[in-house]
Amino acid sequence: MTSNSFLRRPDTVPAAGAVLWRRKAGQLRVALVHRPKYDDWSWAKGKLDPGETWAGAAAREVLEETGFRPRLGIPLPRSVYSMQRGQLKEIRYWAASIMGGTGELVNEIDQLAWLTPAQAQGRFSYVRDALQLNAVVDADARGWLDTRPFVIVRHGEALARKEWRGEDADRPLNDAGRQHAKALVPILAAYGIERIITSPSARCFTTVQPYAAAAGLTLRPRKGLSEEGFAETPDKAARHTVKALQHPQVTALCTHRPVLPAVLDTVRRFTAPDAPAAAVLEQVSSAGLDKGEALVCQIAGNGDEPQVVSIERHRPAESLIGSS
């Protein structure tokens, strides 16, 4: 349950998938799919399309192979292995709950089986799939499997201050920033974001606007998340963050570099001290977020005592990993 940000060899084939889970009579079940072409049982997964994000590919592949629309949860161990032609294949996985879908099998899959962990252990065709299964079982035992995301976004790259003659709050995104905003759409969709609070500054508002439009959401501007509002009332950013962490709807928050330390310090207060999330948070707090980056925090528990149990980075450069 650490950061999913990593470097890879240029000749590595990238793929993504998820361990879809649910409960039946209170008992954990996980979904394995059968591919008749290979006569194998494994997790739902597939290769990244050119320019596709890891999270977007995982959500797409799960929907295509199971007929269920997933909400990505905690990151799971990735699999790396050699292919027949000598290339490495690297698969990034998440646990995932079901947001919707019919369960109709339409894409290269002829069977889906909901199995207990013990049944899955005896069914899957590849020993390497035990890595993800064991992580899911361990997270469930710790109360860290059933989570909801909270996403912190730093706005995309904007026109330089020296190139803009208007009010700073009106300074727009540049071409790179608009690409950042576009790349965030499948990431936020994979986590099923239902609510977005944002600085009213143009560079923040337009970073999350494409996803809001695609999802049919109304953006909720908060002056306390702007640079100007933060300078006037520094404690408001922390209050907005606490409310987002405690809110029952899955929330994303978009803000600026000077405001991020207050937001991250607030997240730290709710981070389980024994969770790997704490180490990732320290890394991000010291180095900062990239422009256009999404920091995904997974929250276990409800009400006044939410616990952040995993944190992962989705950096803009990673949206190019699937490109040829």
From TrEMBL:
<dbReference type="InterPro" id="IPR051325">
    <property type="entry name" value="Nudix_hydrolase_domain"/>
</dbReference>
<dbReference type="InterPro" id="IPR020084">
    <property type="entry name" value="NUDIX_hydrolase_CS"/>
</dbReference>
<dbReference type="GO" id="GO:0006754">
    <property type="term" value="P:ATP biosynthetic process"/>
</dbReference>
<keyword id="KW-0378">Hydrolase</keyword>
<dbReference type="GO" id="GO:0006167">
    <property type="term" value="P:AMP biosynthetic process"/>
</dbReference>
<feature type="domain" description="Nudix hydrolase">
    <location>
        <begin position="11"/>
        <end position="137"/>
    </location>
</feature>
<dbReference type="InterPro" id="IPR000086">
    <property type="entry name" value="NUDIX_hydrolase_dom"/>
</dbReference>
<dbReference type="Pfam" id="PF00293">
    <property type="entry name" value="NUDIX"/>
</dbReference>
<dbReference type="Pfam" id="PF00300">
    <property type="entry name" value="His_Phos_1"/>
</dbReference>
<dbReference type="InterPro" id="IPR013078">
    <property type="entry name" value="His_Pase_superF_clade-1"/>
</dbReference>
<dbReference type="InterPro" id="IPR029033">
    <property type="entry name" value="His_PPase_superfam"/>
</dbReference>
<dbReference type="InterPro" id="IPR015797">
    <property type="entry name" value="NUDIX_hydrolase-like_dom_sf"/>
</dbReference>
<protein>
    <submittedName>
        <fullName>8-oxo-dGTP diphosphatase</fullName>
    </submittedName>
</protein>
<dbReference type="GO" id="GO:0004081">
    <property type="term" value="F:bis(5'-nucleosyl)-tetraphosphatase (asymmetrical) activity"/>
</dbReference>
